[in-house]
Amino acid sequence: MNCPLCGSTEVRKDFLLGGAAVHVCGSCSARFLSPQPSDSELLAIYGEGYYKSWGLSGAGENAAVKAMKTATFELRLDLITRYKASGNILDVGCATGYFLEAAEKRGFSPYGVEISDYSSAAAKEKFGADRVHRGVLEDCPFPDGHFDVIAMSDLLEHVRDPLRTLAAARRALKADGVIMIMTPDTGSLTRRIMGAKWTHYKREHLFYFNRRSLSLLAQKAGFEAVNFEAAKKAVNLEYIRTQFAAYPHWLLSPAASLAAGLVPRGLRSRNFGLTMGEMTAILRPSR
């Protein structure tokens, strides 16, 4: 077997995950799922039940969840604005548009790409049908070189071909633009402690990166990595409880349920910052 990112044959099977296995490349250090789920399997995974881990049913926006997600996106925008403070911004995997709402308030001109019928329709209602593309980045109709910023939060681990996705981003980005990526980090302390039980190991996560493998992937797509940081998220006890109810863990699920039960109802939705084994990266086109 060859590594799908670097082509190396130095690949070993690490552990089984569902009907597949997570493999590790000894050359670039990327991890990947093989075989990948079929389109029908992924469609089943991304059904309405998928959003239960957000504390959503799919029937509408939840104000507490929106506030929590927006607080996280404000952290991502704080990072982005160190490099770009205005211009056209594209959120790939924009869902219903929480990130774009926050970006628009900061003066950015918002655009989105979203594969979900439900979520893209909601985003189009907010920003206009010409600003949101239902589909994937590779087939979006926006002009080449149109964007000052492209954001990919919790996206790159889901795509079948990360190099193809980043190459499409390179075409869509201005020569002086930047990309912000947030994705699970296999170099994180939580992954090293939890091993195969790491909570980011999921059937819908097809690729896993650390700083080295993401830097190498960026180079192949025509970028250079200029910043890496541990990604802090805004979370609350109710969100953590619903996450571990949707993705059961033998130890953390009962612990989260117990903690949420011990805390008064009014405090369960109070947000706090937590690093959860993810990283952010800022990429810019190679000089």
Provide an overview of this structure.
The structure is a single chain. The chain has a domain at 59-236 and 271-285: Vaccinia Virus protein VP39 (Rossmann fold, 3-Layer(aba) Sandwich), CATH 3.40.50. Helix 2 packs across helix 3 and helix 8 runs antiparallel to helix 9 (252-262). It is 33% helix and 28% strand. Strands 6-5-4-7-8-11-10 form a seven-stranded mixed sheet. The chain has a four-stranded antiparallel sheet with strand order 1-2-3-9, with no helix packed on it. With 287 residues, it is of the alpha/beta class. The model has no long low-confidence stretch (mean pLDDT 90). The radius of gyration is 18 Å and the shape is globular.
Query: Order of strands side by side in the largest beta sheet?
Result: 6-5-4-7-8-11-10
Which overall shape is indicated by the principal axes computed on the Cα atoms? Answer: globular
Task: Identify the CATH class of one domain.
Answer: Alpha Beta
Secondary-structure-based class equals alpha/beta
In CATH, the homologous superfamily of one domain goes by the name Vaccinia Virus protein VP39
Q: Mean of residue pLDDT?
A: 90
Major sheet summary line: 7 strands, mixed
CATH topology of one domain: Rossmann fold
Summed up, the helix count is: 10
CA-atom Rg in angstroms: 18 Å
Helical fraction equals 25-40%
Distance between the termini: 34 Å
**Strand residue content:** 25-35%
- Counting DSSP E segments of at least 2 residues, the number of strands comes to 11
- Regions with little confidence, pLDDT below 50 for 5+ residues: none
- Give the SSE order as H and E letters: EEEHHEHEHEEHEHEHEHHHE
| CATH architecture classification name of one domain | 3-Layer(aba) Sandwich
